[in-house]
Here is the input.
Amino acid sequence: MATWRVKLSLILNYFVFAILLNSVGTVILQVQNNYGVSATSASVLEAFKDLSIAVVSFGVASYSVRIGYRRAMLTALGIVTVACLLMPLLPAFWTTKLLFAAVGASFALIKVSVFATIGLVSPSTDEHASFMNFLESFFMIGVLSGYFLFSAFVDDQNLQSTAWLSVYYVLAGVSALAFVLLLATPLDESKVASGAARPLTDDLGDMLRLVARPVVLVFVACAFVYVLMEQGIMSWLPTFNSKILNLPTSLSIQMASILAASTAIGRFLAGFILRKVSWYWLLMICLVVSAGLVLLALPLASSAGSQVVTGWADAPLAAFIFPLIGLFIAPIYPAINSAILSSLPLRQHGPMAGLIVVFSALGGTTGSIITGRVFDAYGGQTAFYFSLVPIGLLLVLLTIFQRLGQRQSTVVREREHA
Here is the structure.
């Protein structure tokens, strides 16, 4: 198996879905402009995406070994290619819901398969953590690219124009390219192949038994809270830029890319830092700095809405400072995912990846809906101040997770020496 070709294919798959999944913030803004829906109504797009991820992940994670990781990824890429082609052909709010449901279901197949495949091509714990961060950094590069790609199709002079839907022809082409590359890339899955057929209920039981472990239970709580925070910010940042900072629509989308760029840089740097520094202390420092950045940046937004903005040069300082939170929250998700996956045997990576996807999806939906409702009721600044709550929870949960992980490692070593 050519390891570099497999890793390249995983990166491209993740890149495609990064653009599609994280376009939800841009699309939330656009459906408000095109179809006249409220912020609360638009927030359901996150639910269509994340709940489909959760449902499909729960059903597929335990079954992914027998259907094959490569076959699952090819199926996902085929589905999103067709879904993207339908968007400009049938422009409507219900079509948008259908798109995100298809993208979510397909991403469930992709993420479970990608996370499980990492264990096949990255045998050591350090290599696993390093590639996980590099993979997540390329995910954020995809998010960054998506902001500029979508903004290039937006008509600032006519907010009701649906010309931006033509971007989905481009995305269908990129997805088809990823399909062809994966089709030409061999993947040796013999290490995780099941020697004898087992009932599906047994596989689901294996996944549920994982949740019964205290360390896994605390981990999924960490994943849920982190994604709640991240998606609450990421999905509503374009709307915050447009409605609170009064930026033009295309600029609102473009400047949201600062969050993606800072997250990509943060994860890329973490790929190197985590080879030298304990993940726990790195994440503690990052969370404290993130809270400080929220308290520094949001007061600046209160005086930013009065000035006329035409481009990056005269954008308010708050539009640049707040998205830098991505630099500091960036290492959290890949670090905790790697910590739990590398502590398990390869055979359990598929079910564990399914749990990661399920609880991440539920966290994303919860975060977006809460932020949308607070945005409607109390305004964008209050909605983003809400991020201090999950930051505080993560400081506690990660400490518990780290201590339980140490205790589990001690028990394993004692058994090995017994």
